[in-house]
């Protein structure tokens, strides 16, 4: 985290598509040590960027997506890009 904090003044979003058999559509993690915390347990602001990407990628216009943050605490979100 020290390297990220020193050389990347912002947040890093990591995301992956869920498997077909999973109840979620995609998963995410958010790292932001520059802002004082190594990892955001369930970052709502990250999903303002991730939701339009996954909506288009999955072809789910007008449909809610289900996502889970894979941090230690974890968090489930239901998001819609309208």
Automatic annotation (TrEMBL):
The leader peptide range reads none
Record keywords: Isomerase included?
A: yes
User: Which controlled-vocabulary keywords does the entry list?
Assistant: Isomerase
Per the record, what is one GO cellular component?
cytoplasm
The GO terms describing molecular function are: isomerase activity
List, alphabetically, the InterPro entries matched.
Phenazine_PhzF-like (IPR003719)
Superkingdom of the source species: Eukaryota
Q: Does the keyword Isomerase apply?
A: yes
Q: According to its UniProt record, which protein family does this protein belong to?
A: Belongs to the PhzF family.
Q: What is this protein called?
A: Uncharacterized protein
Its source organism is Allacma fusca
